[in-house]
Write a structure and sequence with these properties.
Number of helices of chain B: 19
Number of helices of chain A: 20
GO cellular component, one term (chain A): RNA polymerase I core factor complex
GO molecular function (chain A): RNA polymerase I general transcription initiation factor binding; RNA polymerase I transcription regulatory region sequence-specific DNA binding
Strand content of chain A: 15-25%
Oligomer: heterodimer
Number of domains of chain B: 3
InterPro entries (chain A): RNA_pol_I-sp_TIF_RRN6-like, RRN6_beta-prop, RRN6_HB, Rrn6_K-rich
Structural class of chain B: mainly alpha
Structural class of chain A: alpha+beta
Distance between the termini of chain B: 47 Å
Largest interface: A-B, 125 and 121 residues
Radius of gyration of chain A: 36 Å
CATH class of one domain in chain A: Mainly Beta
CATH topology of one domain in chain A: Methylamine Dehydrogenase, Chain H
Protein name (chain A): RNA polymerase I-specific transcription initiation factor RRN6
Strand order of the largest sheet of chain A: 2-29-28-27-26
Shape of chain B: globular
Order of helices and strands of chain B: HHHHEHHHEHHHHHHHHHEHHH
Shape of chain A: elongated
Organism (chain A): Torulaspora delbrueckii (Yeast)
Largest sheet of chain A: 5 strands, mixed
Helix content of chain B: 55-70%
Distance between the termini of chain A: 93 Å
Helix content of chain A: 25-40%
CATH superfamily of one domain in chain A: YVTN repeat-like/Quinoprotein amine dehydrogenase
Amino acid sequence: MESELPRKSPTGAQLGLGVRSAALYVSERQQSNGSESKWLGACDDQLAVDLSKLCVSNKRCIINDRATRTPSNDEIDDDDDILSSDDEEMDEEANEHWREVLLSRLNWDRLSPVIPPNLQYFKDVEFDDEHMYDVKQNQVKSPLDFVPENLISDLTRSDLVSPTRNKGKPNAKGSISYDPAVGSLLITGAVQTIPDLRNNYNQHHIIAFSCGKTNSILKIGLLEYTSPSSLTEQIRQAASIQLGSTIKGIKLPEYSSMLDRRSDLIGVMTESALHVIKIECITSRMEIKTSVCEPLPFQDFSDFPFADFAFNPWDLQQFAVIDVKGNFGIGRLPKSFKIGHKARILREYGGSIFDPEELSNWKKIEWSSSFSRLLVMDRSKMIELDFRQDWQLEVIQSKTWSRLLDYQRLDDDYGILLTSREIIVISTKQTSEHISREVSWKHDLDPNDSTLRFCIRKVNSGGKKLLLVSIFSRNHSFLYIHPFLMNGDESLIQSAGSSTILQIPHIKNGLRGIWLHDSTINDLNESQKLDIFQEVCLSLFVNETDGGKLWHYIISNDSTKLENWGTYTDASRTNLSDVEIDVLWPKHMHHKLDQIKKSITFTKTDKEDTAAEDKLLQAYGYQLSEAINELLIDWNDPQESLLGTQPLIKDLVEIPHDFNLKEFGSMLSQLFNHYHDQALVFTKFDTISSPILYEKIEDLEMLYNKLLQCWDLVTPDSEILTQGVIKHVIYSCLRLWKPSLYKAKETQIFDSLSKPYRNIIGMWDDDDTDLIRPQTDTTSADYSGILASSQSQIPTIKSSQSRPAKKHRMVAAGLTTGRVSKPSSNISSLRDTGSTFSMLSSSQPSNTLPDTMTPAFTLMHPPSASLSQSQSSQRSRRKKKRVGGFG
Amino acid sequence: MFEQPVALTTRRLRNAKKLRYQYVNNLSAKFNRLERITNTNGLPTPENSAAESSENEEALQRKKKRIRRRLKSAAGESYSDSESDEVDNNHDNEVVEDEEEDQERKFLNNYELPQESFEKWQDDPSKRVPIQRSKISFTKYQRLRRHAKRKMNTSIDLASKRNKIYMDTISEGFEMVDPVDGKPDTFQMKHISILTTLLHLHVSRREWDAAYTCFALLIRVPKVDIRNIWGIGDLILREREPIKSLEFLSWMSSVYSSRSAFAEDVNHRTPPVFTKGSKTHVPKFATTWMWESLIQCTKNSLETGELEQIESNDGLQDLIERISEMVLAPPYMDASEVWFIYGLCHLIKADILSNQFDGRLAGSARDIASNQVIQHIQRTKSCLQTCLSKGDFKYPKRYIERQLEEFEKRLDRQEDTPDDSDHEVESLHDKLDTQSIESDDDSS
């Protein structure tokens, strides 16, 4: 008792920013070394660990599968539009604004085609009701024996469902309510299997997390150092276990220090049952072998689903559970995890803390100071009870100023309680009669935020133990870390300095769960422990609020470490298919970027040299025409295969690195004209432009200018970029072919066919409409309607009538109001020519149809060998080819 | 993300609160009725008697409150203005909110409003009761719920859409992700929330100048109560100019200390733990001020050498005098912590004086000097005695006693020999952490 600091008895030391609490004057302390003050208080600023240097790595690794998950079941999607945040609207507004600006500047239609609301992309497909085709779901529906009332009320009272919901706009904030009974779904910890214990092996560090579409799959991975030089552990292997119901909490038993061993169990609480998984062994090839105890359904215990559970630190087989309304009980695990062995509830030790005034489902149960003492809590009270001696005491009543938010047992002597106002270190020493407050820290976080939770990590820091309490919330992506300091034998606990706030990069919508992992504390021997002085490097596992992705960051106060930390290399995930390198910046992307940069800079430097450019272009043109001439000769040979009939221009002659676009355009047009006489056809520019700009532009320079205006808003290097883009587009799309050649080929192939096939083709070629009619007559009216509508609708996307009208309006608006700002006279004049040109082009009836549309079944080339295919597939095939460039 | 230094009230929140309390009160009323029905049938169990006793207490409390209210009205509502702002009464729509007040007060009347901490902590083993064995069943709970919902059908129907969702959520046992709705409803609130966030961020990054600017701006915003953020302000000042910090705290404790009783029958917007004082609760800024000045005094006395000893001693003397005045009246009179500080003041004084004690002195001068020390030691003892008598303060008693003995021994010493100070430090460690030596052995 002598070691105690002065304190008020029920409250302990109450600290906060700038708040002093009782301290002890130590007269003998030497002031000379400067660091030691004469005061020994609950808050020791002198020993403060400078957490302000802590940083979160900017890099991160994804841990779980990328499969998008539906919002997990713990969140009820009551109404997702009420809380749609300002930012989102802002974003949308900004987008809309820019789009308007773009449109007004370019005299364009809307960038995206206007899709009629009744357009159907696919035919209605009738699914067969045959059970053979049923999708096999490997997840059992949770056997809730009552329908949640909110579901019924939601269905009956439709006014709860906001009308805006139908827009299908995803809510940026996620859902507005959540199930507080959902605990941490991502944990790491040390396990010692029985073979490990026998062979005196070291403990293994594992990570366990939930994943899957319904969050019902438990994955267990091994955390390990691949090499001594690596800073943090990597995840090696995973065992996955189907639990058949949404996982609500994962826990590893922490045994008392008296037992001096680690557990080999993982407890998993699901919506419907409590599962206990035993890790049988971890083989030398790092495979995890598990056995699962028969689940304990909540119906065996009470009428309500489980809210929390805990393992007895002193008794390997005992556990405690509590349900969402406060009924608690003690249970025993079976000795062996064989089929038929089941955990059972000990009826003699049950009880309830039900409080009609407490509505929240959040309940927590944890062992207190001895093997028969429990701490049971809900949001407004904490009860300590001894189930053997049959007494309970309401140690904390928080009906007024604060609410209990989270509690975690630290070790046999301490636990940490988070309330909406404070972080409280609670002493659960066996010597004291009841739990007591040691030190509290007023965290100043929003007291209305009930989603605050925390995780604790003990870090060795120069012979002392640093306790990092990191608080996180679903509402934001900040970590609030407060340090506590324990002296070597854990008899004295102090608040060490002030807290720090870290922002976790890339995460916008808040943190569902985090877990700090520090394997150094166990893996290093004593001498090394002294070396890690004031240096912290922790793994941070983060579970995002939405999207359900798990991320791995590191936290360190050493910036070089953060820099050096590499995301997982490929070698480390050979066996774990769903460990992926951060998708944001794949490695090859950098390479590509470099390439692009290089090409840009190259163009930039040589730009002045126009004369040389012209020469180059001339040479290129010459070479090109020569190559085409050769090609024409080749084509005269009838044995040439079909493959060579549509060469890309870039395949003919090596392209010069840079060019003057204007010259190049004129050269190309000259080339086209020249070979037009020889019945050669080149891909037209409008075919190239329409997939990019949804508009047909027949002039290369027009295309360039329009693209330039798009890029102009984005980057100052727009000219070069656009040139590069144009060049690449042209080289990859521009083909040439000779239509007459196909005729010859067609007849050739036709002749080679046997008679029945010839008949079919002949019939088809003559009157294709007749072939379709009988079909439509026989099929249902729906089908014909769809067919008719699809035929009539697709042209309206780019109908010739609408465009000039719109353009007219735009131009008129620009003229009358002067609103259209013209970036340069050059461009505007170009635009004028462009508009007149498009007017002209729109007047030609042949151009009114989009390029993707075949004008009703004119067979351009004979069908290839696959004649047995149905007509529809042939049609689609032809359509595809048209996209390829049969302008 | 941070707590704002103003009481957040919007109509929506107020209505939501009202609905919640109404629902909760309905639930518990029905539950109590159900329990009583079963109780009359069953045998008297310890739980029942415990419940009864609590009811008696409740009745007693209610009576007390009634008396207090009557006294209050007799005194013509003479509540000090420092508390009027705490009271949640909006005069313009008092009639409308009458019911709400009732519901919240009805709920809170059953509970003690703690002043010392945010929660009521209990560690008295005599309050133990047997474990409540009867479990709540689904049917019973549904019965409660149905009843409670039925009773407040109209108020739910009248509630806004958002509050309906809120009610649906909480009655299902779920919680709202963001109960406040995230968005401040006025520009002023927006301003305050941004400033608060900036303030905390700057403090966490130790950028004191920027933090100071934020603090200075924030306290000038109307509605912002400096009592909610005095701690941060003190910290910033302490880092910038320690003297100002003491002045600030002393100003706080002279302006905002209150000697009136804590009103339990009003709805407080902010918890009094860190922000307020009352007849029975010494405000935290006052104790912080005392500790801070005491620590400052010892620092000064050690930093400034022997020459300025007198001056710095004066600081300590001033403090002793101020505290001696303060402990004459409540709340300081009954505060064990203040008495402990008072005791420590004398202890430090004795330490300084005994250190200064010149062994070569003789005769009356020696007697005067030693008497001074002994006097302070005596006073320390008596202060600590008073502190202990309050019964809610713990301190390492034997350690302080040994320190006092040490001071006394110094008087007998002929020549000041600092050689045993090392030994003292060790003995301190010995006493403070009894197991540290063992652990040291382990590591070596």
